[in-house]
């Protein structure tokens, strides 16, 4: 199979995969009411998904060394789709949590293997291809958040069911594509993947993920905005990340990618301080900047570690550390939101910046 066809399939799968990260976010206020769950506990939904994704990142890289990248990625997307089909039939909040935990494991199986297929297919344009891969995440995430508009007309259960069904045939196509097979590489961890994963965890694994999942709930409870308005405002952050990913060619041209990550993180997090004003323009600007800079910074991080002898395991290591360290911010966000409407955003800024000095210990630039 031609590498261009493989790339198109993986990018399309990445879009649907990404939608499955965020499509329950707009439904959280509704789920809270239906199951009589407090706002603080709603943070467990994105948290438990990240627990599954983070805990299975490295096992997914090892599995891919034996099963192959394409089959592992297809299995991951299929798992996410099937659990999504089951969520609408949940009769209590705990069933939703269990299904999202399993969906997170599916996400782990897809992420690093999909990226490894692209990086090995296009070794001469790693930054550009991984940028497109990340842009697809922004597009899919934005679709997932914007999907909340349909909840007002079809209800969250039917809408979730319809979007989940799309992933089943696409997962089977990914599973059976030819290419992306890793012939038993050594199980060797990358030093740079560990350092970069820790240093960037506050920005992506923490602030970006927490803001994307919980801004709708924040806008509804803090400012009384309609759910569809808050969902659309949040989707701006995800859609703007598309342009960050599509700017991946910049990474191939810049020599000091570590410095680029530092600058982008500062530009992306500091404007978050204006979100508590609930000024629509401020939310759009802050969200847009965060989406763009986060995606470009993450692409730079992926590019730095993707040239390791085992790219799937290297990327999985980076992503696992991003998630394990950053996932706690979703819970901290909802807990502190009860105390103060400004404190969550201040914490996002501090957590994103405080780990950046660790980048000086990387062996690559």
Explain what the structure shows.
There is one protein chain. The chain has 365 residues and is an all-alpha fold. It has a single domain (3-361), classed as MFS general substrate transporter like domains (Growth Hormone, Chain: A). 78% of the residues lie in helices and 0% in strands. Helix 6 (69-86) runs antiparallel to helix 7 (93-121). The protein is globular. 58% of the residues are buried. The mean pLDDT is 85.
Offer a concise description of the structure.
The chain has about 375 residues and is mostly helical.
Keywords:
Growth Hormone, Chain: A, globular, 365 residues, mainly alpha, 19 helices, 0% strand
Could you spell the SSE succession in H and E letters? HHHHHHHHHHHHHHHHHHH
Instruction: Assign an overall shape.
Output: globular
Integer count of domains: 1
Oligomer: single chain
Distance between the termini: 34 Å
How many extended strands? Answer: 0
What helical percentage do the residues reach?
Answer: over 70%
State the name of the first-level CATH class.
Mainly Alpha
Q: What fraction of the residues are assigned to beta strands by DSSP? A: under 5%
Which CATH architecture would you pick? Up-down Bundle
């Amino acid at each position: 199979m031609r590498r261009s066809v493989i790339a198109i399939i993986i990018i399309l799968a990445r879009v649907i995969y990404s939608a499955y990260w965020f499509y329950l976010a707009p439904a959280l206020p509704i789920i809270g009411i239906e199951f009589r769950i407090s706002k603080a506990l709603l943070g467990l939904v994105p948290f438990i998904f990240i627990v599954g994704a983070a805990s299975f990142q490295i096992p997914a890289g090892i599995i891919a060394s034996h099963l192959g990248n394409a089959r592992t990625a297809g299995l991951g997307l299929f798992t996410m789709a099937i659990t999504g089909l089951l969520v609408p039939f949940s009769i209590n909040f705990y069933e939703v949590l269990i299904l999202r935990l399993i969906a997170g494991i599916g996400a782990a199986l897809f992420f690093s293997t999909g990226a490894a297929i692209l990086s090995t297919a296009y070794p001469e344009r790693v930054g550009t291809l991984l940028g497109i891969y990340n842009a697809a995440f922004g597009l899919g995430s934005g679709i997932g958040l914007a999907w909340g508009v349909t909840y007002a007309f079809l209800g969250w259960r039917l809408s979730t069911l319809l979007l989940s069904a799309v992933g089943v045939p696409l997962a089977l196509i990914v599973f059976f594509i030819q290419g992306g097979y890793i012939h038993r590489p050594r199980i060797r961890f990358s030093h740079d993947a560990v350092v970069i994963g820790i240093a960037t965890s506050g920005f992506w694994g923490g602030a970006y993920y927490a803001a994307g999942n919980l801004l709708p709930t924040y806008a509804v409870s803090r400012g009384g905005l309609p759910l569809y308005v808050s969902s659309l405002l949040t989707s701006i952050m995800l859609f703007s990340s598309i342009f960050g990913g599509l700017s991946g060619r910049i990474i191939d041209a810049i020599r000091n990618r570590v410095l680029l990550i530092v600058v982008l993180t500062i530009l992306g997090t500091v404007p978050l301080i204006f979100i508590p004003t609930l000024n629509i323009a401020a939310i759009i600007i802050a969200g847009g900047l965060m989406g763009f800079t986060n995606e470009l910074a993450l692409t730079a991080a992926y590019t730095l570690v993707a040239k390791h002898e085992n790219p799937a395991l290297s990327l999985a290591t980076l992503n696992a550390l991003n998630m394990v360290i950053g996932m706690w911010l979703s819970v901290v966000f909802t807990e502190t939101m009860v105390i103060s409407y400004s404190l969550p955003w201040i914490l996002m800024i501090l957590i994103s910046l405080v780990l950046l000095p660790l980048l000086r210990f990387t062996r690559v630039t």
